[in-house]
Amino acid sequence: MRSLQFLLVGISVLTLVSCSSPEVKPIEQSSTVPSKTTEVAKLSGFSGMQDVIGKTKAAIEAKNFNLAKTEFAKFEDSWKTVEDGVKVKSKTTYTAIEDGMDSTNKKIAAKDAQGAIAALQLLSKNVTSSK
């Protein structure tokens, strides 16, 4: 008889616990929320590089070199998507962009606002000419 009581109490507890638990629904991905793939595609290539240049320049003008460094680090992601095509089209432009990236990084690291902005402007010109 005691075993039957434990069994009934156990079933009752399990029933109460399962009834009081909130219903778990799977999360549906909304079409309005961009996926990481969408973001990368949106910010890659030539438009992505120009976007990075603009944000980096704004950070430098605000004298926020840590933000400038963080922003400019994104340039490489966009550059990777087009660099092979640029290299085939114009070795000179390819080299100019690679050199511009190095120069910009050095000027940001040195907290040389004037030099970094000049390097960004030249980099932007080379990116524009490589399209």
In short:
By secondary structure, the chain is an all-alpha fold. The protein is built from eight helices and no strands. It starts with a helix and ends with a helix.
CATH superfamily of the domain at 44-129: Oxygen-evolving enhancer protein 3 (PsbQ), four-helix up-down bundle
- What is the overall shape? elongated
- What is the helix/strand order? HHHHHHHH
Helical residues, percent: over 70%
Describe the structure.
The protein has 131 residues and is mainly α. The protein has a domain at 44-129: Four Helix Bundle (Hemerythrin (Met), subunit A), CATH 1.20.120. The chain has helices at 2-20, 36-42, 45-61, 65-72, 75-80, 83-89, 91-109, 113-129. The longest helix has 19 residues, at 2-20. The relative contact order is 0.11.
Per-chain topology:
Layout: H1 2-20, H2 36-42, H3 45-61, H4 65-72, H5 75-80, H6 83-89, H7 91-109, H8 113-129
Helix pairs in contact: 3-4, 3-8, 4-7, 6-7, 7-8
Task: Give descriptors for this structure.
Four Helix Bundle (Hemerythrin (Met), subunit A); 0% strand; 131 residues; 76% helix; mainly alpha; elongated
